[in-house]
Amino acid sequence: MNSKLRMALLLLPLVFVVGLGIFLFKGLFGDPTRLDSALIGREVPSFELPDLYQPDVTHNESIVGGRPMLINVWATWCPTCYAEHTFLNQLLAEEDVYIIGLNYKDDSRGAAVRWLQDLGDPYAISLFDFTGLLALDLGVYGAPETYVVDENGIIRYRHVGDLNERVWRNDVGPVYYRAMQESGMPIPEHRRELIE
Fold first, then answer.
1. Do residues 113 and 53 make contact, with C-beta atoms less than 8 angstroms apart?
2. Which residues contact residue 28 at a Cβ distance below 8 angstroms, ignoring those fewer than 6 apart?
3. I want to staple 126 with a disulfide (CB 3.0 to 4.6 A). Which of 8, 45, 52, 63 is the partner?
4. What is the CA radius of gyration of the chain?
């Protein structure tokens, strides 16, 4: 074996260990709520799902667009969704944020309806995704997840984890308010700083 080949074989484990170290270091300090989505910049996938409250009524992708909105993936089995729910109600009450709720793989429609009746319903439309097919098409890892969709039905942003005031101010809100601005809708005075 010549000396160059021997040197390459000796350096190969070192290169592997350094590469693995860099990969793990990036993962250690990365933000787990920032997961890339192949759907950013693309339309919300086609779907046909029943309404949570009225099983005989079905909705499809035509309910998406026309104005900026959030699609919020939630479930009654999700403790983080419970924590996030107060903030969603606040967004609706104080800022009239348009939210479509996607109830994700709940075993019981009744439990989901009772949840909204007890905690308040921030959703303009509530979809029942019992099988999780739309969530799968969206690339959902679990609940809660929230998507910002513009007036053309294009997904602008994806947030994994709960929405709260900090996340809204730093990440989700600026994208939502820019979409509102582009569609000609007025932005609440106290939120204008988020897009300046």
1. yes
2. none
3. 52
4. 21
Tens of pLDDT, residue by residue, the chain (196 residues): 677 767 666 666 665 555 545 555 554 544 444 445 568 999 999 999 999 999 999 999 999 999 999 999 999 999 999 999 999 999 999 999 999 999 999 989 999 999 999 999 999 999 999 999 999 999 998 999 999 999 999 999 999 999 999 999 999 999 999 999 999 999 988 899 988 8
Buried b (16+ CB within 10 A) or exposed e, 105-131: bbeebeebbebbeeeebbbbbbbbbee
What's the token pair of residue 4? 């160059």
Sequential DSSP letters for 114-134: HHHHHH----SEEEEESS-HH
Helices (H), 38-163: 79-95, 109-119, 133-138
Of 162, 170, 52, 146, nearest to 105 by C-alpha is 52
Contact present, 68 and 149 (Cβ < 8 Å): yes
Main-chain phi, psi angles of 94, to 5 degrees: -90, -25
